[in-house]
């Protein structure tokens, strides 16, 4: 059962990562096929498990400032910055739609 | 002291008594790293800082004030742990050139105790893989490829020796190779599906996966938040206990570490195993398990039986679903964890300037390899609204069933489980790359993954050499937070099997001969 082009396009938008070629799409199909084996297992009445430490209380520390003031160190690894700001290209511009993009998915 | 000494038993004593100086030890390790460069175990060698640390250690020894047993001991760290001032790449283009502003908690702990950080070891990109073949710096070569033991048994397939080398396993292959080739006394790895135990088995070293929640993950670049743990690689079980003692314990910076007090321990020399109950899970006789390993496993079970322990067959019925379950949970968490890499605050940034999103997309397109991208996309698929219940929540339910299997078995009176670690000995690189990463991981993680699913401690103990002259290890799985019992049994087993020392050829070994090494009789 193949995944529709719309869903593939949607995934590329959500993940901000591309399938790149038919191999990439095949990889997804195989992954889904593999995951489908889960449905062989009877999980009636079984609660999902988030963490193996679910029987314990999560540690919450006191709301005291213990460290910080490391602006310089944090900015050091950014390629584009101005004063104490990380600089990004303009936002609120949606990615081009499938028809408008140059993507291998168009051919599918 | 020789580079192949046990940390606790020999080197530490030698340092304390002044028979060897930390700077000398460091220099010899650095020289050996250079001469074993062809293994490609290290991504970054931090020569200057290591020597500086060694000098500081030497000062402390001169004053008679060493910080502890790890003072002056050369160690290596897998390149997915943040190290301040030293590049941390995760073997990915995404983080090439990234110099972390902080040390991971485990790294800080090692440094605080005077350990000498030699460098960062190679891995599969972002720790995704079971061969240490898929990083941008190339594959890691198993040191045993260059051992007398392997060469004696192998028929060279081609003129070039170059193509016969075998993989280290993964994803902590660099760390395993570093320890195996004597360039350091201990190394940190990480373990999400077996990434410490698998290469440990293939490289003939001890690989410990601690209980989830025992050791801090702060600074370990995350793969699967609910399963990742820092792993410990050493040449003997006693050394693993030393490392564990210095790393375990609550970290306020990692809220998934338990708050119980942790007491470091020395391992007793167990002589009487009659009170032990060893469980042999029948489902671990997995399809594809080599007859050699099956025989070794059986022999090991007999060893315990003959020594008076109770050895029982047990069942972990959901074992065969652990890989599928892992596949879904792992890709889902990866999809989330990899979202932080967008080029804005650190790491690779694309030149694309059209919009924020297009910059992110281009950055990730350029920065991640196929394996990483594949997992992100699969993960996002399983997390889609229409798939969430069907896949993600379903997998979480299956996870509980897998964890419960272990609970039931341990409740029935079994103390430790004994299983194989890998399906076979290390494959030649040329053969390994015939299959894609996901298929390989699926096959290779089958015996190690369930312990991560259930959060249990597990350890690989090198057991014997295969017919090809390569290491084979066996795995012990223990109860949550019962590392002392687990390691005690592992140590007893290690003593029984007397795994042989690697005889590296083509590599100048620095053996001052001060310490004799028993040529161990092999197990098989």
From TrEMBL, chain A:
One of its GO terms (molecular function) is transferase activity. It holds the Pfam family GatC. InterPro entries: Asp/Glu-ADT_sf_sub_c, GatC. Keywords: Transferase. NCBIfam families: gatC. Signal peptide: none annotated. This is GATC amidotransferase. The gene is Gatc. GO terms for biological process: glutaminyl-tRNAGln biosynthesis via transamidation; mitochondrial translation; regulation of translational fidelity. It comes from Vidua macroura (Pin-tailed whydah). GO terms for cellular component: glutamyl-tRNA(Gln) amidotransferase complex; mitochondrion.
TrEMBL record, chain B:
The keyword Signal does not apply. Pfam families: Amidase (PF01425). It comes from the Eukaryota. One of its GO terms (molecular function) is glutaminyl-tRNA synthase (glutamine-hydrolyzing) activity. HAMAP family: GatA. One of its GO terms (biological process) is glutaminyl-tRNAGln biosynthesis via transamidation. Keywords: ATP-binding, Ligase, Mitochondrion, Nucleotide-binding, Protein biosynthesis, Transferase. This is GATA amidotransferase. GO terms for cellular component: glutamyl-tRNA(Gln) amidotransferase complex; mitochondrion. Residues 28-487 form the Amidase domain. PANTHER family: GLUTAMYL-TRNA(GLN) AMIDOTRANSFERASE SUBUNIT A, MITOCHONDRIAL, TRANSAMIDASE.
